[in-house]
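Hi P.,

Sorry for the delay on this. The queue was packed all week, but I finally got your sequence through. Input first:
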Amino acid sequence: MWIYQAIIVVLSLCLIGQCLAQGGDVFLVLENSRPVGGGREVMTILGWGFATRAGRSACISDPSGHGINDMRFSMSLGQILLSVATLGFVRRVTIDYRLFAGNSPAGES
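Then the structure:
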């Protein structure tokens, strides 16, 4: 009987660990950055990535043509609970980004 209780405790700890791990975020940024503007995209991944359309991408408008300055990938508590409830079949990820202002000529700030 105690073996079943130990297995339930271990599996519960694994589930809690997965919830905490999904709550982390990743932040990428250029060195000596000059951010301007920005926006947010929410991507939905289905079937652990197998059911998502191949070649799917998130397009952003970059009027200056300088590219992205920094990006943050994260999941809110609601997105984490959705992922846990569907056993990872449906995952929603939030991508926050800011655009790069470009390099300023010497003497300008």
